[in-house]
Amino acid sequence: MPSTPCALCHTSRALIIRPRNHQKLCKTCFLTLFETEIHNTITSNFLFQPGERIAIGASGGKDSTVLASVLKTLNERYNYGLDLLLLSIDEGIKGYRDDSLETVKRNAVQYSMPLSIVGYDELYGWTMDQVVSQIGKKGNCTYCGVFRRQALDRGAARLGITHVVTGHNADDVAETVMMNLLRGDLPRLSRATSIVTASAASDIKRSKPLKYAYEKEIVLYAHHKGLDYFSTECIYSPEAFRGSARTLVKNLERVRPSAILDVVRSGEDMAKLVPPEVSNSGSSLAKGKDVVVVVDGEAEGEGGCGSSNGRASGGEMAAMERKLRGDDEASHGGRETDFTLQGQRHNRHKALMTAKASKKLPKQQLQKCVRCGYISSQSVCKACMLLEGLNKNRPKTEIKVSVDEEDNNPTLTRRMEGLTTTPSVDIT
């Protein structure tokens, strides 16, 4: 059986089937096409300015590694004139972040880029391992999300950089769109779909050059380029609500490969319907492009929705169908009676709609956190509020727990000697 030729060059043998459209390509054409699409995303959205210093949020994973590799290639090929460096956040997760940081250090040498590492421990006095040991695995992504956003801002500020790029891909954006739709959070939906976001807490803006790149194609690119990256997922992420949205998006992709970009485009269209005072759309930072402002760290909410980690059981659906059938039978059988007050048959709905239309939405007033000085919409920023809750219950000495089990008489002995709480940590 003859080999299938590449759909672009028609000469080389096709080795890759693109996940987004099942196009059959050779290795060279795929790599060139992938890089060209990222270049088109950058130029069409005016992401960079000549001479700009750019910090690449590097975690050692496939997304940030591919982003660093592609930006280095495009910067040299198209003469962007950018000064690129790597910025990593050490959350303090043993067995995950410590190993991935070793990959980042190798990447810094491979790409000849300076590397700066900022740790939760030095900023907040807590590592994520300590946070999880205190609060458990439910809701830990909320803490990490708020802490990480501030850490990126503070790390960039130390370096005198005002632009950070992250490796968020099309799958990530589609998952965020689904999460915010499921939560009915349109304001956050508007902020999440923007390719450029500015932090109200600083002059630092962020952009997502890989916004329209499929996760599977990023993996293919990393594989065929022979990139060095860390492939283990965060040990705490399976408990996050994002996992349910990811499963939904992946199931849609199996049925319809273009579903991921369809969800992203739909999210962008819906975001345009959100009023500017709700979405916090700010003035342009880049040639006429709207920049969305993110206030005081935006992290994903804790937990899922519904039963069984976000999935409704068959019994619930069957009961709902029975109720709907019963409602239909009552309506058609003449057993349903509509009561309305005389003269107010349609006025109630009209009055409600008028009240909603005339209601003015309050604008957020930005101020400095009274504890750490970080710009926030509240007198105390989210990071300080989370740290206060952690520090109130933090033991000064280790709590030793021993369990003695006897026949039919189990006992639990707790030794809590010298247990005190520590004051709030200054994260300036």
Provide a compact summary of the structure:
It contains 15 helices and 14 strands.
Written account of the structure:
The chain has helices spanning 27-44, 62-77, 97-110, 120-124, 128-135, 140-158, 170-183, 186-193, 215-225, 242-255, 259-271, 276-279, 314-332, 347-358, 382-392, and strands at residues 16-17, 24-25, 53-57, 83-90, 115-119, 163-165, 196-199, 205-207, 281-286, 289-294, 367-368, 375-376, 400-404, 411-415. It starts with 15 loop residues before the first strand and ends in a 13-residue tail after the last strand. Strand 13 and strand 14 form a beta hairpin. The protein is α/β, with parallel strands linked by helices. Helices cover 43% and strands 14% of the residues. The chain is globular, with a radius of gyration of 26 Å.
Topology:
Blueprint: E1 16-17, E2 24-25, H1 27-44, E3 53-57, H2 62-77, E4 83-90, H3 97-110, E5 115-119, H4 120-124, H5 128-135, H6 140-158, E6 163-165, H7 170-183, H8 186-193, E7 196-199, E8 205-207, H9 215-225, H10 242-255, H11 259-271, H12 276-279, E9 281-286, E10 289-294, H13 314-332, H14 347-358, E11 367-368, E12 375-376, H15 382-392, E13 400-404, E14 411-415
Spatial gap, N to C terminus: 67 Å
Number of helices: 15
How much strand content do the residues show? 5-15%
- Rg for CA atoms: 26 Å
Order of helices and strands: EEHEHEHEHHHEHHEEHHHHEEHHEEHEE
Biggest sheet architecture: 8 strands, mixed
Q: Can you count the beta strands?
A: 14
Tertiary shape? globular
Strand order of the largest sheet: 5-4-3-6-8-7-10-9
Q: Helix content range of the residues, please?
A: 40-55%
Low-confidence stretches: 283-288, 297-318, 397-422
**Mean pLDDT over the residues:** 78
